[in-house]
Every structure is written in structure tokens, then in C-alpha cells.
Amino acid sequence: MQIVLYGPDGPRWAPRLRTDVPDITVETTSVEDEAVALVAAADAFFGVISPRILAAARNLQWIQTPMAGLERYFFPELQSHPVVVTNMRGIFHDMIPDQVLGYILCFARDLHLMIRRQLERRWAFDEVKVLDLPRMTLGIVGLGGIGAGVARRARPHGMRIIATDPRLTECPPEVDALWGADRLDDLLAESDFVVVCAPETPETRGLFNAERFTRMKQGAYFINIGRGRVVLLDPLVRALESGHLAGAALDVFEVEPLVSDHPLWGMPNVILTPHTAGVGSHEEDRRYEVLLENVRRFVSGQPLHNVVDKHGGY
Q1: Does pTM top 0.85 for this prediction?
Q2: Is-catalytic flag, 174?
Q3: Looking at 89, 152, 227, 287, which residue is catalytic?
Q4: Is 117 considered catalytic here?
Q5: CB 143 within 8 Å of CB 175
Q6: How far apart are CA 195 and CA 31, in angstroms?
Q7: Dihedrals φ, ψ of 243, to 5°?
């Protein structure tokens, strides 16, 4: 079996992979012309594949992507090709939920406001408003690995947890109610915190628009750590300015980086982070372990982990 590692991970991972799975041939390159030549005889490929590389492949059976979100990965030739595609789903199951819980606790204890008052050197005791989390409902949009991790992090804080998901039918023990995607508006009406963990697909792109924000509970908080283009920022700004929403925390945006004159930067009830929710000290090791496990499975003929629906995009 031959695998091509294409991109910046290859030089670091190739020696490890040759040691961990000695009966495979590992080729590595960061140059597309070289990848085109190498992929001709390859059985497997790791990296971001292009139409040109795919067209040169004669024996390719499996592609392991280096990322979890694949909204910009697929192209028509890849979707129609019989090759199996797997992603890095699951490696952020704790890092991103930790950040979500950080947002929730900031809002619950007014820490986002107190940090601003500290910078102003103001003693703002009378401004603090505290939320009683056990009286709150947390709504999670998308109950994949990250959404389920959010539920696990929130459960010890006594929140009622509800979720929608288009595929999942079995309700995890941390979740009080699991509904299909067709009940999103019900979730919005009941939730004090709404956390978007959904991938970007044709169905979810622009999902949170003006109509959706009006369906949210008065005084609710909105959090997006899923994909930026799932949420339209202009109607979100209007919902915050009108007071319909009490606050928002965003790690991903329609266009990144967020432009410096965007009104969200100056809103005191908004927390902005620069797409850092998935940053963690173990990220590279976890990504390598996903590749290694699937290489071992591929060599031994076992089913691969994290197989992606190439038309659905996740």
C-alpha cells in the first residue's frame, strides 16, 4: 500500500507513520506537481486534494482530510469519484466545548462587562447582573461530537439541555430532549442560550437570518462556534441593538478576519474570539492519531472512521 502525505504535516508525520505501520510506503510533498506524479500509484492520500491531483490518480481508494469542516473541500469530480473520504471529526470534542462553557459563564456572571470596567478603572458593583444557570435552558443546534461535548460540559451546571440534529435519533444521557432539525424554531423559543455547532452545508448556510433571530426567546444569548456562514451578521447586529438578544459570543464569522470597523467590535454585550475555539496543545497529536488509526484500518480491511457523505459535506 502507498499513501501520499500532501502538505505541511507530511515532513513531520512521515517518519512516525513509517515506524508505526512499517508495511506501507509513505511519500510526502508540499508541491502540487510532485503530488500529481506521486498520486498516480497511490492507494491513499492525506491532504487537500485538487481536481488536477484527483485526475492523475489511478488506484486511489481513500482520502483522509486534514480538517474536520469540509464546506470548501469538495468539487464535482470528487463527489462523483468512488474514493472514500474521511475527516478529522471528533478531535475538538473537549477544546471547543470548554470555550463555549467559558462564554456561558462569562455571561452568567457578567465577567465580559467586568473586564471592560476593569480597563476603565471603574468600580461597577451596582452594574452586575447574575444568571441562575439551573433555571436556564441551553439549546444546542447540531449534536455531533462538539455539540455532545457542550452538553457534557453544561450538565454539571444544572441547565436544562435540548438539541436539534438532522441525523441523530438516540438522545444522549446529558440531553433532556433531542428533536429533528425541523423543530429548530421550537428550540429557539425555549432556549436562554443557543449554541450553534452545525456544519456548513447548503441547508445550513444562512440558517440564522433575521426571521430566526426574531424566533429566539427575548433576552437570550447567542453563541456560534460552528461555521461562520451559518449565521448572517447583519440581522444578528440588529437583534442585539434592539435588545431582543441580551448578548452574543462568536468564534467564527461570515468573512474572516472580521473587518475592524464592524459594529460587533464595539458592542459591550458581545464576546469575539478569532477562530480560536479549536486551539489546543494536543491538536496535532490527535490529528495524527486519526490518520494512524485509519491507515491501520485501511491496511487490514476494516471500516474507516469518520467517513464523510461527499454530497452532504459532513
Answers
A1: yes
A2: no
A3: 227
A4: no
A5: yes
A6: 39
A7: 90, 0
SS3 43: coil
DSSP label at residue 171: P
Q: Which of 256, 284, 296, 311 is catalytic?
A: 256
Helices (H), the chain: 10-20, 32-39, 51-56, 76-80, 95-109, 111-119, 145-154, 184-190, 210-215, 233-241, 283-300
Q: What tens digit of pLDDT does each residue of 114-130 get?
A: 999 999 999 999 999 99
Say which of 112, 117, 238, 275 is annotated catalytic: 275
Distance CA(286)–CA(297), nearest Å, equals 17
Domains of the chain with CATH codes: 2-91+281-300 (3.40.50.720), 95-272 (3.40.50.720)
CA separation, residue 94 to residues 39, 40, 97 (Å):
35, 38, 5
Please list, in sequence order, all residues whose beta carbon lies within 8 angstroms of the beta carbon of residue 254, skipping any fewer than 6 positions away. 228, 229, 231, 232, 233
227 included as an active-site residue: yes
Per residue in 14-64, pLDDT tens?
A: 999 999 999 999 999 999 999 999 999 999 999 999 999 999 999 999 999
